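User: Can you write out an input/output pair for a complex, sequences first and structure second?

Assistant: Here is one pair. Inputs:
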Amino acid sequence: MKPAPFDYYAPSTLEEVLALLGQHGDEAKLLAGGQSLMPLINMRLARPAVLVDINRLPGLDYIREDDGMIAIGALTRHASVASSNVLKKSCPMLPHAAQFVGDLQVRNRGTFGGSIAHADPASEFCAVVYTLGGEIVARHAGGSRVIPVEEFFEAPLTTALTPREIATEVRVARIKGAAWSFRGIAPRFGDFVLAGVGIALDFDGEGRCGACRVGMFGVGPTPLRAYKAEQSCVGNRLDEKLIVELAELAATEADPSSDVHASAGYRRELLRWLVGWNLRNASRKHQEEMK
Amino acid sequence: MIGERIKRREDPRLLTGKGQYMADLVIHGMLHAALLRSPHAHARIKRIDPSGALKVPGAVAVFTGADLKQHLEPLASWYNFAGKQAPTQPHDYPLAVSKVRYMGEPVAVVVASDRYVAEDAMEQIEVEYEPLPVVVDAEEAMKENAPLLFEEAGSNIYWQGSFQYGAVEQAFAEADLVVKDKLYFHRFSSTPMEGYAILANYQSVDHSITIWGNFQSPAIFRLRIAHSLGIPMNRVRLITPPDIGGGFGLKMPLHPWAILVAFVSMKVMRPVKWVEDRLEHQAASHHGSEQTSYVEFAAKKDGTILGLRAKIIHNAGAYVHMPEPLGMVEWSHIPQGCYRFRNVAMECYSVLTNKCPVAPNRGYGRMQHQFLIERMMDRVAQELKMDPVDLRLKNFIRPEEFPYESTNGALYDSGQYAACVHKAQETLDWERWKKEQAKAREQGRYIGLGLVSIMDPGVTNMAMVGLFDKSLKMSTTGEAASLTIDPSGTITVLTGSWGQGHETTCAQVVAYEFGIPFEDVYVVPGIDTATHPVAGSSGTYASRFAAMASGALQGAAAELKEKMIRIAAHLWRTDAEKLEFSEGKVREKGGAGKFMPLAQLAALATYSPAKLPPGVKPGMESTFIYNYPKANEMDDSGRANFAATYANVVHAVALEVNPHTGQYEILKYVVVHDAGTLINPLIADGQVHGAVAHSLGAAMLEEFIYNDEGQLLNGSWVDYLCPKATDIPDIEVEHIVTPSPFTAYGVKGMGEGSGPVPALLAQALEDALSPLKQFRITWSRHTPEKVLSMLREARAG
Amino acid sequence: MTRHIITVTVNGTLYTREMDARKLLSDFIREDLGLTGTHLGCEHGQCGTCTILFNGVSMKSCLLLATQADGAKIMTVEGLAKDGVLHPLQESFWEHHGLQCGFCTPGMLMNALYFLTVNPRPTDLEIRRGIAGNLCRCTGYVNIVKAIKAAAEKMAQNKGA
Ligand SMILES: Cc1cc2nc3c(=O)[nH]c(=O)nc-3n(C[C@H](O)[C@H](O)[C@H](O)COP(=O)(O)OP(=O)(O)OC[C@H]3O[C@@H](n4cnc5c(N)ncnc54)[C@H](O)[C@@H]3O)c2cc1C
Ligand code: FES
Ligand code: FES
């Protein structure tokens, strides 16, 4: 199991990266942490003619708060996401989710940008950004554009990025309300999930739900939102009856498929339970906060 | 010394990166091989054009099955050994010839300057396949109109046989209760961290070949490798390096690719190395065996088991590589487990399918049988509404009945099965968990307890091959050891097999025998058939090491001690009877008088042969081949003592099921083990941990999943899930020591006694869910998804 | 295929070597530098046997290209013992029988070494999660967890002293 031949470049400026991408188009692949790309290259399932290593680009490893959003540089390692104080304060769902991404070694090398660009439907980071809302900053030789996360994920491992683009930054919305919850179920600790759910909930002074976001992952070709469930939530008290209803509703909005690890039906059942669990958990956290 | 928790001698090199595994070996001028493998499970090779490979710069040579067929003998089987044709597949070569029969079967080999280039060249080989109908299910493969793997054989049934011990018909006629089930034991393997690897170096000048490989039993397969290569056996030298990255039985079978790499070296006249990569290992190395069983148990109302009748169908995969089909009859070690019933009928089928061939995997063949017995014990308990533990206690062979000859002639050496059960319950804190369980049930939570009790037989008596061919009259369990005492008084040890911890345990035994410091004994790491002594069944398999090597070491030590006493008696002109060997010297009995240290005696025997008594040979070396004294030949009714030692193990567990997801968590896990005298309890505990982890992995996570087209769907470690540290609980191990009356020091083989873990979890899961419904789990891998579907079924009423 | 010259420090020694773009760092360490303590159990990032420290943090060397190590400081298992004295982690693995075949051991040690720098006083569960990227087929992890825990205590004591 050894890689097929390729040419390798490790530019130290974004301009060079963009020039190489411009020149080689879909013959070229960006190499970030390599935690998804290298296994494919080793197995010769990916055979890029040109590898453009972006690890030597300066200034893409940062996490900072920018007008209401948190901006994360594409080369920020998972380990930095896991330990970031900015995130723990303003977007704690991300560092929480980071604990479940692969393992220590993977988190030491894998990058946030790579994770988003790789677009695994069961990726924790894709799920969090999709759930909370955000955007991806993409650069190409002619300029740049900002892609809303709702338009970013197109299919498993497929995004709106063109082969000539690089994602330089991912922006994710802060969690404003107090209540959030995130949990997935994987075959083993750190594996990609069979099903996962992230929830962010605002409550009004009366304990009724305000804005509500229910994200689902591992249960469709891309991360998903349970929009119907979200709508049914708004303005209501989260009692047990409503929770069961919302879980049912969310389960109908998922689109899981079967593989060696689980059937679509099982994934849907896990999802149903996870929606309920996360709603209860968020609500409990909110109540604790109130005390 | 024996029984001490001595830190392992091999560890410093392994901890500092100085281990020597196969992949680390380098010979000047060596080439690297890569194997092109079939993407199809069953297809005719219509055309194969390897010429493209040689156009890749750095590629040196390429060979296909046709080349092998022209120059090699097909792989040997037990039958060839008896001078007969195997029932089917006489055309088994290390590369497919005209047809491929499983996904991943090699069709061509390329050698090149390095592995990268070899893989580039491999991609340039053109093969045109004509896909054929595929059969992956053994029962389907037995049907009349099933696609045939070997058309010339006319059937996919490689071998079938029936065995009857005791009065089976009568037992079933007299039974108050007969329970029946169809059980399925799934396909997995312990996938060692290191794959196979071979380095072969042919010398044309004397037509000899040296093959390095991570062989678990070079001694057994040397003959067969020589046979295929057409090189006299004495010119085939096999070397196992000091370190093997896990074998678990999978590196034991006849190694087709050792023959392949050797062949390539002969052709290109250069050393050639091949290291199996992970994808190759998962798809096409060897898997553990998969078995479907139709079982009936006969019992009395009071719970006395009367007999067992089983039809077992063994999915052997596409080829039968020696020691297969032995897995099919491994139940003969323990036909009735730990229990007293004496009526057993077994009808066995070894069936070829378009899956990867099978091989020994920790608990070879016995695991499947133990699963069957323990599951059926639970079924009887359910039917009689008896406590499953009480049912076992009732049926155990009693301590006073040992040595106990089982119905098929297996001679169980010793044991205290009930004591092990009690100790396990105590260690688990059974009563406390019962209370927790009751409390949990009130809260709608599901805690389950389980306890199984099984045999962990050690050592295979090769008489067993008689079960599939009566004319094969073997009786070896043998192991060889040689000891040399040099004139400085240090001792060098060579043994005929090699495995984890042996450097330490052998040194312990020898130091004990001579009463000398542990440091004075050096055990040469690895095996070299040119220098190491071997016996008929030398090898690291069937937990044979402790029992057999210690016998050989003890035998060799006894010879040397006696020799030294004779020499001293001669020098001192006294009677040998008046002398003894103790604490590294020959001395007058009691120790108060004259003495002579072993260094002096060894120096004398080496340099001054004229001083030796008549009839005593110069030098201080002894090679001893030990055969287990109770290893007999099989008689005409299929009876023999098919193993040597009969350790037993009790496993107990408490687990909790998540009723919403079907996941379950092991709350506590206990093993009570009786392997007789333990040479090194530190190492013994480690063996138990490892064995449990393998079986827990199998029971929870691991399975090779094929679709109907014979495609392996989880061929990488992304999808084939080995347990991580977060999946295995802390495992508490307790020992009870009932020495074997028949072996050196009373040791028994150990380390494979975790076969029934799938049955244990099944029992505990049934127990957990019993307030909802009485389930009958008939399968061996318990995924959360299956558990959840049971819960759903129970809720639906 | 492009070729590259790199300069890399491995276990304190500076090496300059030339290689093909596709040469994996794991193969480079094993074949070009002859440091065969770093093992390859899967070559696709799942087993952790190839774990090394790359600029001080643990990574799987089969998922890195050798060229990426240009200018880096690498530590492999061979760099763990100093002047023939075993590192407390090595001692502890030995003492607690935390290894059997030893194939996973170098990667396990390197990852544990890094893990203890970020979590010097771990619980059993934290240890298990910390080494979840390292498979071991022999030990059932029981003694590995014990060994890491004991080493952590020893190392904390040494620091305190
Ligand atoms: C053992 C193991 C377990 C894992 N478990 C999980 C898990 O549980 N959950 C999870 O989410 N992930 C998991 N991963 C994947 C891991 O998180 C990866 O790090 C991540 O998916 C990809 O990030 P990377 O930086 O490694 O990207 P790379 O592997 O370098 O690249 C991945 C893809 O993204 C492209 N790319 C990279 N960066 C950019 C960019 N800036 N702009 C445009 N395209 C880019 C590359 O060209 C490539 O196609 C696991 C990986 C391993 C090896
Ligand atoms: S060899 Fe690198 S993770 Fe397995
Ligand atoms: S000790 Fe063998 S794999 Fe860990």
